[in-house]
Amino acid sequence: MSQKEYERLVKKGRDFMRHLPNIVLDDWQSDQELKKPQPPLCKASVSKEIYPLKRNFQDIEIKDDLTSILIKRKSHRVYSEEKISSNQLSYLLWAIQGVKDIRGDNYATLRTVPSAGARHPFETYLIINDVTGLKPGLYHYLPLEHSLAFLDEIRDIPETINEAVCGQTWAKKSNVLFIFTCIAYRAEWRYGYLAHKPALIDLGHVGENLYLAATALDLGTCGIATYDDYFINDLLKIDPKEEIVVYLHTLGTVKKEDQDKEQAFYAFLKEQQ
Ligand SMILES: Cc1cc2nc3c(=O)[nH]c(=O)nc-3n(C[C@H](O)[C@H](O)[C@H](O)COP(=O)(O)O)c2cc1C
């Protein structure tokens, strides 16, 4: 890449971060203002094989208070390959995308995370490797029903996870890989060309809730921005023009004894000293 091309791309990235023009001063009108039909609040299931999740979390034991959870929160990349229960997974899904209420006449969902204009433009897919009570494979979370729709079997799950995360081999031991997509028009209907930056800000809340909820359950997670869009698009069978893969998270069981192995991921820091 030439220096000029590099500088052009850096400027494009910075402009994306910078520009949030005042919508009121603009002569552009959103599809919402033009009274175009509102897109669905959530993507409908493409599968009839539905697994309802428990909404009652009384048997989820959380020993730590919020301050301790915030202190404990870290990225985990060493997993001990024990079982995770479907109720723990249910709790995590509720913590990151759970619907608490509907605003107006199906105008918006109110969830456990905030979202600009309550658009909540994300869909959550899971590659389930090892969760008690759920067969391994590809699933789609249905937030309104708090259910999982089974989409497909996957022949070699660890290798599929490895390919999805561009060869970050430690991820192969995840119990679950979370894949977040953005249905862009759900946010564009209200915010048009201004929709994309707020949507990515929204996504940070989803990731942090997953970090905090996983920590509360003594499980480990790691946000993943290095992934293979093309591979995941094919796996999910989504239309990449409309639905964009935006973030991934691993999830696994962790042991205190593995803390040294976790530190090995940062060995390069010692080499720098
Ligand atoms: C948006 C985002 C993307 C990330 N992508 C990766 C990744 O692809 N691979 C990885 O090993 N860690 C990834 N991480 C984890 C960061 O490296 C980690 O959060 C950072 O080193 C700070 O460590 P801590 O989370 O333990 O505080 C990502 C974190 C975030 C928030």
What does this entry look like structurally?
- It is a single chain.
- By secondary structure, the chain is of the alpha+beta class.
- The strands form three sheets. A seven-stranded antiparallel β-sheet has the order 1-8-7-5-9-11-10, sandwiched between helices.
- Strand 3 and strand 4 (108-111) form a beta hairpin.
- 35% of the residues are buried.
- The chain has one domain (50-272): NADH Oxidase (3-Layer(aba) Sandwich), CATH 3.40.109.10.
- Helix content is 33%, strand content 22%.
Give a quick rundown of the structure.
The chain is an alpha+beta fold. The chain has helices spanning 3-18, 66-72, 86-97, 157-164, 184-191, 196-216, 229-236, 259-263, 267-272, and strands at residues 50-52, 84-85, 99-103, 108-111, 122-128, 131-132, 137-142, 147-152, 176-183, 219-224, 243-253. It has a single domain (50-272), classed as NADH Oxidase, CATH 3.40.109.
